[in-house]
Amino acid sequence: MPRITDERRKARREQVLEAARACLQEHGLEAVSMEMIIARSGLSTGAVYGYFKGKDDIINAVVTEGTAAMGRQLVPILKDPEPRPLPELMEQLLRTIADFGQDKHDGIDRLLVALHGWSHSQSDPGLQATTRAAYRSQRELLTDVVRRWQAAGTLDPGADPEGVAQLLQSIILGFAAQRALAGDADVKAHASALQALTPDQRPRRPRDDRDEPATPIQHQPA
Questions:
Q1: 87 near 188, Cβ under 8 Å?
Q2: Long-range CB contacts (< 8 A, 24+ apart) of 130-133?
Q3: Residue 39 and residue 15: Cα distance in Å, rounded?
């Protein structure tokens, strides 16, 4: 019997995960069963169990790999040494998240699937720890962004970087939830609202001697 290549094994494993995402979207977390996933995948029962121990193992993989995939797309934006002003940065981040959710295979909305994953993580201590660690890492990157804004003089130096980072992460997670649940979270609307709330967040050029007011010339009487 010919040996399955690593590439083929990876493709089959992803085939199972795609089937699980589709089942989660269509039926919800509680209703999904191994039988549903196996049937949707088109693989044999033995083949599926060759990759995963059971339903929980599959859902955990869907959550951890989905979180990691989204994170990989956001990291380059967050590590930019010269981050854009807040409204532009959040527009870039939210656009990336929206595009990630709409990168559909067989009509799967990854943001909706993510909500089921968040729910599942609350009942699995190991998955909860992994998920929380991922979001803590994201918050640390956001904190670094805030500090770079402060160093550039575009954000109040007295602001708490960690507190601002928590707020920014709430916007990110709230956008993902609203997009999945309400279906109408608009990227541009979020950016415009942030611009209205932070009209003064713009780059400031360094101060130099040319910024000093000119000394008036004293004319001596003839």
A1: no
A2: 130/64, 131/63, 131/64, 131/67
A3: 11
The pLDDT of residue 71 is above 50: yes
Q: What are phi and psi of 185, to 5 degrees?
A: -70, 120
d(CA 20, CA 137): 27
Burial class (CB in 10 A: 0-12, 13-18, 19+), 58: buried
CA–CA separation, 37 and 117 (whole Å): 16
**pLDDT band (50, 70, 90) for residue 120:** confident
Is 63 in contact with 131 (CB distance < 8 Å)? yes
CA pair distance 174, 194, nearest whole angstrom: 14
Collapsed DSSP state (helix, strand, coil) of residue 206: coil
Are residues 179 and 101 in contact, defined by beta-carbon separation less than 8 angstroms?
A: yes
CB atoms within 10 A of CB 76: 9
The predicted-structure confidence for 2-54, as pLDDT tens digits, reads as follows 577 889 999 999 999 999 999 999 998 889 999 999 999 999 999 999 999 99
State the CATH architecture for 56-199: Orthogonal Bundle (1.10)
C-alpha radius of gyration, the chain, whole number: 24
- List alpha helices for the chain, DSSP H: 6-27, 34-41, 45-49, 55-78, 86-102, 110-121, 125-152, 161-181, 187-197
For the chain, the structural domain boundaries read 56-199
